[in-house]
Amino acid sequence: MAETTTTEKKTVQDQFKALEAEGQANINKTYDNSLASQNQGWQNAFDQNQQIQGQQKQAVQQAYNQANYDLGVQNTRNDNNLTQFADVRDVNTQQGSQHRLRLNNARNSANAKLAYAQAQALQESERQAALIETNYKNQISAALADNNYKRAAALMDEYNNQDKKQQEYAQLLAASAGNFEPYKNMYGEDTANTMQTMWNAQHPEEAYRMGNIDANKYKEITGKWPKGYTPPHSGGGNDWYDPSGGKGKGGGYWSYNQGYATYMNNYGGK
Amino acid sequence: MATTGLQDTFVKRQQESADKIGNLYNQQYNAQAANLKTAYDKNLSDAQAAQQKIAPQYQTQANALGAQYERNRRNLNLQNMMNGMGTGTAVQQQEALNTAFQNNYAGLRANEANAQTEAGQKIADLGFNYQQQLASARAEAENKKAASLVEDQNKQNDWYDTQAKLLSGYGDFSAYEKLYGKEATDQMKNVWIIQNPRAALGAGLIDANRFREITGTNP
């Protein structure tokens, strides 16, 4: 609820606007907090996933390092076997170098097969890392879109709710205080004035005491003078409703403003 | 002043209600997170057990491949010696044997590394999925919480209106000051006093003069 200080004069319309703004601010704050918390959740997931993917990439490297190492050991073993075999069979230099060449080719072919598999695995790992980042960005965007959508719906509800509430507040104020100020904004000044006139006619006592109507209007509506009021040229009266403006008895009516001002001065609205 | 009491109660109610809603959704999220963790731990344990079987399985195959190679090599050598095979031909055959073995061995190790990679990726995927589900659960809880808080705000405002109306029946319009401002609230109060002068006098809202002025009679 909006705060009102007694020193600050605010119209009913100002109050309504303040209430509306406060309601909207509360909704925005609620959805801001919601979005921040959701984003934090996605950020945590992203951080964790990046860490997991980093470990997975390391594991891929280790698996292929091990495979490369094993293959290297095997290559050396084969190399030694061939050398030994060639020595035993007394293979000549030219033949030996041809054999060595073919052995190297075979080794290269085997290494290439493993290297290709390793490259593919690392590529897949990189693709996965990129996917994690894309997914994170998508989730953040989706959370924002979802939050905006829900926030807009909540603000729209709030707008409708405030509209309905303000109608109720306006009705209450009009019924209980004869104050039709909010209706000026809703229906226009002429209509609000007509409503005010109607209320005065239905509540002449309150309208007169509140200064909305003067004694003549009161008499016009009710057919009698207000209680405590001394009609003009009657020889009576008192200084509160002295029609001569407080300077004497009798001699005409106070204007609406004069009457209300004197009333407020004497009683201060109490 | 009455408003302070109502306003304090209103703020307290708002806070308590918001705390309750927050706790409710936090508890729901925590329970869901615990369920997800249990499922993740079970899946992870299964996946890790499967991964641990890979290395021994491939080592068995590598050993068998090596043993077979050695058998083939010896057989070849033996056969070549018995057949009096020339050096060049024997070496070529030896080369072919080596090449085949190397290719098979490289293939085996590549498959093993692939299997390790796949198993590792499966474990990582379980982690991704778990993190994703956690964040989704949190997002869902936050969305529901926000909607609930907004709904609660309206309920609290309705409650305030009801209390303000109740108080106004006793000539206390102070709660309406929050809705209409002081001037309009004073008007409401004055109308009530005019309509209920005796009650207003009894409550000390007006004095005898004002009573007389309104009613035209002495109290």
Describe, in short, the structure shown.
The complex is a heterodimer of chains A (270) and B (219). Chain A is an all-alpha fold and 270 residues long.
Give me some keywords for this one.
heterodimer, A: 270 residues, mainly alpha, B: 219 residues, 7 helices, 89% helix, rod-shaped
Structure commentary:
The complex is a heterodimer of chains A (270) and B (219). Chain A has 270 residues and is mainly alpha-helical. In chain A, 78% of the residues lie in helices and 0% in strands. Chain B has one domain. In chain B, 89% of the residues lie in helices and 0% in strands. Chain B has seven helices and no strands. In chain B, helix 1 runs antiparallel to helix 3 and helix 2 runs antiparallel to helix 3. The two termini of chain B are 27 Å apart.
Nearest-integer average pLDDT of chain B: 90
Largest interface, chains and sizes: A-B, 99 and 77 residues
Output the helix-strand order of chain B. Answer: HHHHHHH
Radius of gyration of chain B: 44 Å
**How big a fraction of the residues of chain B is strand?**
under 5%
User: What is the number of helices of chain B?
Assistant: 7
Structural class of chain A: mainly alpha
Give the SSE order of chain A as H and E letters: HHHHHHH
Q: Regarding quaternary structure, how should these chains be classified?
A: heterodimer
Distance between the termini of chain A: 26 Å
Largest sheet of chain B: none
Largest sheet of chain A: none
Weakly predicted, low-confidence segments of chain A = 1-7, 236-255
Coarse morphology of chain A: rod-shaped
Extended strand count of chain B: 0
